[in-house]
Amino acid sequence: MERTEADILAEWAWLLTGRQLLLSSLPVELAADLKATRASLHQIQIQPAISDDGVNSSRICQRCQSPVPNVNRLPSGQYYCASCLTMGRVTSRDELVHLPAMTYAKGNTLTWQGELTSAQCRVSNHILQQFHRHNRHQQLLWAVTGAGKTEMTFPVIADFLQQGQRIGFVSPRVDVCNELFPRVEQAFKNTPVGLFHGQIHEAYRNEQIVIGTTHQLLRYDKAFDLLIVDEVDAFPYVNDAMLQRAVERAVKPTGLTLFLSATPPRVLLRAAKSDQLPLHYLARRFHGRELPLPRIELGDLMHGRHFAPKLQRIFDRLLQSSRRFLVFVPQIAVLEQLGQLFEQSYPQVVVTTVHAADSKRLEKVQRFRDGEAQVLFTTTILERGVTFADIDVVVLSADHRNYSVASLVQVAGRVGRAREFPNGQVIFYSRYYTNKIRLARQMIRHLNREGGF
Ligand SMILES: [Zn+2]
User: Fold this and answer.
1) CA of 15 to the centre of ligand 1 (A)
2) Distance 54 CA to ligand 1 centre (A)
3) 87 alpha carbon to ligand 1 midpoint, in Å?
4) Distance (Å) from CA 217 to ligand 1 centroid
5) Which domains are delineated in the chain?
6) Of the candidates 328, 325, 348, the residue with the CA atom closest to the CA atom of residue 338
7) Is 244 helix (H, G, I), strand (E, B) or coil?
8) Which of 201, 254, 351, 377 has the greatest count of CB atoms below 10 A from its CB?
9) How is the beta sheet containing 20-22 ordered, strand by strand?
10) For the residues 408-422, what does the mean pLDDT come to?
11) How many angstroms separate the alpha carbon of residue 89 from the centre of ligand 1?
């Protein structure tokens, strides 16, 4: 007997709802059914993945909304989109399948046992108020690192869950997603939560809360009632118009997009100033202490084949007081070398190194967190979103161009995050006192003032 759209929906709505997927990527039997019933489909939409206006051959990729220039042509004559290639190739032979979003069971609530500070409560109430009463569909939360912005979003998420709505929580950075996932899962034990990014291959189950990288949003279309975009100032999102369009498309027109950042990009701050974007400010760290102001130590990195004596003395002091510390280096090229030099200089200390492409990255970070390694040399991949209790931070070559003002502020924010250990020191070790270093210290002072210190 021939299948109808109702049959297909009964079996597959969970996979298609709120999404935009390549027909060729769907399960074979579903793709076959869609092709057979194509003429009689009403709810499920199938459209060419690359549109062609036929007039002046301007083609647009319908998945990522990027133009497809004439040179993007395969030997077969098909055009392909180079912009969203990492999510699987889209060609002019492909089609995108979309089903409008549905609702979920109502009433799932917060199972989180923690308590919000009064500042966190005030901000989350204010966000909901701006949305429900004043119809503000995009808002910005500027929270200093360690202010507890994730916990602060829990009441906002709970408000949407109670109405059977769907939540996306995305970040440009994989580490942030990995760290976020268990916390959100723990906070909403009765709600299915999914984690999606390029390094894991979890099966999709139409989870009501979706955590993932901003790239994953290319698979969604008007799916989310609440879309939280964490670390909006981080690479690659900050300079990527395609990802920014993906955010706009993934959220429903009636939904709320909440941008989070400890160091918001200028364009958002400008929008906030001109009142296009309500700005909420969470300046006080949740334990009420201020952000540590980095200490500047000027000096050379090396002396011959050793660390310069001044730097050596800094390491000596930290080790003598049995501190655990992160050492940031500006380039992956020198990471191993500096880590090894440290190992030779201090053979009694357990040291490890980690960088973005490191296959043992999660394991090594965990070893440091567990206290098995006392020192961790890292590139800026650990500059944000990662929490360690009671550590110090040393930034080597803080004058290097690979550090931005935002990344210097973020790095400083790694220190003093736990309630039991609000102290800790940050040392910027550098040959020159640069403008970026000055601006980073100025921003930290400003934030500490806003926090009422
Ligand atoms: Zn594309």
Assistant:
1) 21
2) 19
3) 9
4) 12
5) 5-98 (no CATH), 118-282 (3.40.50.300), 295-450 (3.40.50.300)
6) 328
7) helix
8) 377
9) 20-22, 95-98, 45-48
10) 78
11) 8
